[in-house]
Amino acid sequence: MDTERLELLANLPLLLNSSLDLKRVMKVSLEYLKTTLAADASTIFLLDEKSQELVFWAMSGDASGNLANRRIPANRGIVGWVLANQKSELINETTGDPRFFGEVDKQSGFCTRNMICVPLTAAGTRKIGAVQILNKLQGQFSTEDLEFTERFSHQLALTIENARLFESLKEKTQKLATLDRRRSEMISIISHEFRTPCGLIQTSVDLLSSGAVNTDTVHEVYSILLTGAERITRLVEQIKNISMVSDGRLHIRQ
């Protein structure tokens, strides 16, 4: 492998980990792969584990405008074979390969003549996708091109996984912030809603304690006390299930 490529691989961790933005990481990676390998295009497929489909997450080259977010079954094409077998492939004549999935070319208007396809694996075993380098500008792809792509892809897979973990942590942090805000709102609502019945009860107790209540109004004061106590009971029933707060379903009945 030539000195320029070895230097790029040596600096790759710093280059890729300079950002945790997943789309930016993939875009930069594909540009480097396409330029370094002198190819027409490069593509990253990421596996959607729920639907078992491969998603065109990032592209660089002539096909990029037509393939964004397109999906294909995870068991189709050369990329599907590479993902399933976790084995890299260098194919210098795609039309003669029975695994080649020509439907993608039809949809994009791109003509794939030759390719390198390398799996992306996280933590050594978990399949996350694959990288394709398409159409060598001059001649054919070499085993050195394949080795470079494999070494590049090892670091790329780690960076993608880190970016995903960062996005997941960011999402959880936002959810926690939302939960804290709802709890603060709950405390404010509780304070406000309890103030009125507590005030009624306190006033009634003060009147009874002062002896200023005559026989004609004592039943009215007791009625006010009962109303306040019942309202507090309703409030307690409404807030005792803390999961209502987490789900944003807390509604105080007046």
General description of the model:
- The protein is of the alpha+beta class.
- It has helices at 3-16, 22-36, 64-67, 77-85, 103-108, 143-210, 215-239, 243-246, and strands spanning 39-48, 53-61, 71-73, 89-91, 115-122, 126-136.
- The chain has a six-stranded antiparallel β-sheet with strand order 3-2-1-6-5-4, sandwiched between helices.
- Helix 1 (3-16) runs parallel beside helix 6, helix 2 (22-36) runs antiparallel to helix 6 and helix 6 runs antiparallel to helix 7 (215-239).
- It is rod-shaped.
- The termini are far apart.
Give a summary of the structure in a few sentences:
By secondary structure, the chain is an alpha+beta fold.
Strand content: 15-25%
Total count of strands: 6
Written as H for each helix and E for each strand, in order along the chain, the element string is HHEEHEHEHEEHHH
- By DSSP (H or I, 4+ residues per run), the number of helices equals 8
Distance between the first and last residues' Cα: 76 Å
Which strand order spans the largest sheet, edge to edge or round the barrel? 3-2-1-6-5-4
Oligomer: single chain
Structural class: alpha+beta
Radius of gyration: 32 Å
Helix proportion: 55-70%
Topology:
Elements: H1 3-16, H2 22-36, E1 39-48, E2 53-61, H3 64-67, E3 71-73, H4 77-85, E4 89-91, H5 103-108, E5 115-122, E6 126-136, H6 143-210, H7 215-239, H8 243-246
Antiparallel strand pairs: 1-2, 1-6, 2-3, 4-5, 5-6
Helix pairs in contact: 1-6, 2-6, 6-7
Task: For the structure shown, list the relevant keywords.
single chain; 254 residues; alpha+beta; six-stranded antiparallel β-sheet; rod-shaped
